[in-house]
Specification:
Layout (H helix, E strand, L loop, with lengths): L1 H12 L1 H36 L8 E5 L23 H10 L18 E8 L5 E2 L1 H7 L4 E18 L10 H4 L13 E10 L14 E4 L6 H4 L2 E5 H6 L7 E4 L2 E9 L10 E4 H7 L5 E2 L1 E6 L5 H11 L4 E4 H7 E2 L1 H38 L1 H9 L4 H37 L2 E6 L18 E6 L6 H27 L3 H6 L3
Parallel strand pairs: 5-10, 7-9
Antiparallel strand pairs: 1-12, 1-13, 2-4, 3-11, 4-5, 4-12, 6-9, 7-10, 8-9, 14-15, 15-16
């Protein structure tokens, strides 16, 4: 009991030194809390961007895109993306769109001067049988898989010209190409549309969580055949609302919901039931993308290898790939926090420990008479060390609590300010070009409000660091005090 009374009496008898030591530790602890809160806020901001794209690191997107060479060729300057493809890729694309070839003779459309209207579905990705979905779903580590089909619904109309005109599309890139090269006066519309498996909405290219107005497609394919979910930006641009009718290649669909596609996700203008789009596009039993969910983050790499074996030429996009494509000020701030911020917190904490140690040693020097007298009265070395270390321990605890308060206040200020950072995602190279369609990953940017959530565990760790710092400083000072001999007290007497 005497020890505790004496300990707290000594701490209170020197308020200046106690306050200075506690404040030094508090600054280091407060900085650790603020940097930790900022780091957590940046992680939350990145999760907000990536969460709609991947389920906590366990979702994969599988497709077979057409590869566009990176090197510039003579064809690259012609402005025709089809000509940039290699010969094998041109033939693959021709086979993929053979039922919807944009080349046709005007003579087949009617008499000169008559109006014509044609609809077709084009793709820049190679399709594969729906049976591949079951094979991928059976892979070790796969929790589920769902297929989708993304195409460009093209509509062209105009007046049949007089005889002798070239076939529509021939001037673009020769027979059988997948592009469009019509003469003047034709009206051309291109509408990206995706077919989703309504039985697995959580694995679809658009999920129920992304519906901002209205509802998602019906749960059964039969009921969902005439329904559509429309992209929110496209709906605003074209004044489309829930309950309106929208047209896809001449077929009417009732809009049941409006959805906002996530940054970097698959973005189509219209989403319909998969089977219905397969029928309209004459692609029964064919899909061109599979969304796969792994049963754990550890299974992702194993699934990638298995998918490559089951589906040669497949392009697999994981959550890590999407995270690598996130840029902008959000990414810059995250790098700054992880590098400079952490280093700054460590330096501040080490400086606080050093200040506490120096102040303790200085205090021991000034208390030579007192500590020497205690040894002359019979105190053993361990009692002297315990006394000095105990005083520093109390000062460390005070500094830790004060630092926690500083950290919480700093985090609250950041929350109140709500700084806005920009997150941008680059488009996937080589996927989607010209009028045929869009890439798997849609480029864009979005603003994210940065918060600074304070974790209780982080507070406890920070306070613990301050206590440990005070204890280490006290032990260092106590060991020095323990080496004092009683004669020192007499020599220091006034």
């Amino acid at each position: 009991m005497f020890y505790l009374e004496y300990l707290f009496a000594e701490v209170g008898r020197r308020p200046g030194r106690t306050a200075l030591t506690a404040l030094g530790l508090a600054v280091g602890v407060g900085l650790v809390v603020i940097v930790g809160a900022l780091s957590a806020g940046l992680d939350d901001a990145q999760d907000e961007v990536l969460e709609p794209l991947a389920g906590v690191g366990t979702d994969l997107s599988v497709s077979r895109p057409i590869a566009v060479p990176d090197d510039d060729s003579a064809a690259a300057g012609s402005g025709d993306p089809f000509e940039r493809l290699s010969g094998p890729e041109q033939r693959r694309l021709q086979r993929e769109n053979r039922e919807h070839n944009r080349e046709f003779n005007f003579a087949e459309l009617g008499e000169p001067g008559e109006r014509f209207s044609e609809d077709s579905f084009l793709s820049t990705e190679l399709s594969f049988p729906t049976s591949k979905v079951a094979k991928i779903r059976d892979l070790d580590g796969a929790e589920g898989a769902a297929a989708s089909l993304t195409l460009n619904a093209t509509h062209v109309e105009g007046v049949v010209p007089e005889g002798g005109a070239a076939p529509l599309g021939a001037g673009a890139h020769g027979p059988g190409g997948g592009g469009f090269g019509g003469a003047g006066g034709f009206e051309f519309e291109s509408l990206p549309v995706s077919g989703v498996d309504v039985r697995k909405p959580d694995l679809a290219v658009v999920t129920p969580d992304q519906v901002t107005t209205g509802r998602y497609l019906s749960e059964t394919p039969k009921r969902a055949r005439g329904e559509a979910v429309v992209d929110l930006a496209f709906a605003r641009q074209n004044d489309i609302g829930v309950g309106d009718e929208t047209e896809v290649a001449g077929e009417e669909f009732t809009v049941v919901g409006l959805a906002s596609a996530p940054l970097g996700g698959d973005a189509s203008n219209v989403y319909v039931e998969l089977g219905r789009l397969q029928e309209l596009s004459d692609r029964e039993g064919r899909v061109n993308a599979i969304q796969v969910r792994a049963d754990s983050a550890d299974a992702v790499a194993r699934l990638e290898d298995g998918i490559a074996e089951r589906l040669p030429g497949a392009d697999v996009v994981t959550a890590a790939d999407l995270a690598d494509r996130v840029g902008g000020s959000l990414d810059d701030a995250d790098d700054l926090s992880s590098k400079l911020g952490t280093a700054l917190a460590v330096v501040a904490l080490l400086a606080a420990f050093l200040i506490a140690a120096l102040l303790t040693l200085s205090s021991v020097q000034k208390r030579t008479r007192e500590l020497g007298t205690l040894k002359a009265l019979g105190w053993r070395q361990r009692l002297v060390v315990r006394q000095v270390a105990g005083e520093s321990l109390v000062q460390g605890a005070i500094g830790g609590l004060l630092g926690a308060a500083i950290g919480i206040a700093g985090a609250a200020i950041i929350d109140a300010i709500g700084p806005t950072l920009e997150a941008s995602v680059e488009g996937q190279p080589g996927a989607g070009f010209g009028p045929f369609g869009q890439g798997d990953i849609t480029a864009g940017s979005t603003d994210v409000v940065l918060g600074a959530p304070v974790d209780v565990g982080l507070l406890l760790v920070a306070v613990g660091l301050a206590i440990v710092g005070g204890l280490l400083a006290g032990v260092a000072g106590g060991l020095r005090a323990a080496r004092l001999r009683p004669a020192e007290a007499l020599r220091s007497a006034e």
